[in-house]
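This part of the workshop introduces the protein records we will be handling. Getting from the letters to the C-alpha cells is the skill we practise here. An example says more than a description, so a record of this kind follows:
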Amino acid sequence: MQLHDLRIFTEPQQGASYDTLLAVARRAESLGFGAFFRSDHYLKMSDVSGLPGPTDAWITLAGLARDTSTIRLGTLVSPVTFRAPGLLAISVAQVDHMSGGRVELGLGAGWFEQEHTAYGFDFPSLGRRFDMLTDQLAIVDGLWNTPVGETFSYSGSAHSVVDSPGLPKPLQQPVPIVIGGGGTTRTPALAARYASEFNTPFVPLPFFTAQRERVQAACDAIGRTRPMVWSAALIVCAGTDEAEVSRRAAAIGREPAELRENGAAGTPDEVAATIRRWHEAGAERIYLQVLDLDDLDHLDLIAEQVAPLLA
C-alpha cells in the first residue's frame, strides 16, 4: 500500500469554513494523499459548537475543483434525500469538468433524521429511502450514459424522468461511484450493478470481510466482470509518542485506548500495523477520518512517518 492509497476524509458539519477545508485539501495534495473526501451533512453531531455552520458538499467540491489541481475529490456519502437525481447528475458532471476529471460520487440512503428536520428535508422510511437510492442510481447512470442527441426516460417508484437530454456529460467516463454500508441485501445488489468502489465505514474488520463477501457474491450473481475497488474508513489519531497521541485524542474528545480499538491510532508503527491488517484483509484504499482540521501537522506525520512503513 502506498501513500496515494490513503485518502483524507473530513466531517465539516462538526465545524469548518471553506478556507479551513481548502487548507486541508491543499496540504493533502502537496503531501501526495490520493484524495480529499468530505461528508455530506448539514448538522453537527456530538457536543460541538458546529460553528461557523454547515457547508454544502457539492458547492465545497466545486470550489476545491478550481483551487486544487491534482488531488481527487468526492463525498462519502451524499444522501439521496438532499438532491433530486437530475440536479445531482448535473452538479456532479459540472464539478467533474471544473476539476479536470477528478470527481467521485459517494451515494447512500442517508440516516441522520435530525438534520432533515432541522433544515426541512423529507425523511421517509428506510425502505422508501432505498427506493429513492435505487431510482437515483438508475437515473444518474442513465443520464450520463445516454448518447448525445438521444433522450433518456425512466419510471421508478420514487423518481422518474421523461425525455431527458441527459446533459451535461461528465468529463470522466465513467465517474467512479462509491456505495457502502452494512445492508445485507439491497446494498450489495446496488453496488454490484453501479459501484466502482465499495466502502465499509467505521466497522470491525470481521464485518468488512463478511460484507465484502456479500458484495462479491452479488457481483458474481449478475456476471459482473468489471473489478470492484474495496475500501474502508477509519478514524486516525497518530502521534510521535504517547503524549502527542493523547493530545490529539483530547482535541477531538476521544480516549487513546478507544481510538486504538476502533480506529488507526497510536505511534506511526501502531497506525501502520492497523492499516496493514486492513490491507491484508482486502481493503485496497483506506479513508482516514481526520476530525481536527486545524492540525495540519497531523497530515504531515501520516505522510512522512506512517506511509513509508506501508510500502
